[in-house]
Amino acid sequence: MRATYAVSGLTCDHCVRHVLDEVRAIPGVTAADLTLADGRLVVEALAPLDFTEVQAAAHEAGDYVVAPAP
Question: 14 exposed, middle or buried (CB, 10 Å; 0-12, 13-18, 19+)?
Fold first, then answer.
């Protein structure tokens, strides 16, 4: 399953690494990629992810806001 989200509050590559570390630690996540320029987070998982898990991971990484991508 692939899901795409918009992440706001990113200011540098360090921020991106923190978010990716937390998202990749979610059980079932097999891959994740986050682009600093547009805040696009693409997550691959074995099953559909609970959006609140992704929000919690971003919050754990710092003061980042996650929303479903349009």
Answer: exposed
Average pLDDT estimate for 34-60: 96
Contact 57, 45 (CB under 8 A): no
CATH number at residue 53: 3.30.70.100
Domain that holds residue 33: 2-68
pLDDT for the residue numbered 63:
87
**∠ CA(60), CA(66), CA(70), 5° rounding?**
165
Residues 14-24: tens digit of each pLDDT = 999 999 999 99
Tokens encoding 35: 């682009």
Determine the Cα–Cα distance for residues 48 and 9; give it in Å rounded to an integer. Answer: 25
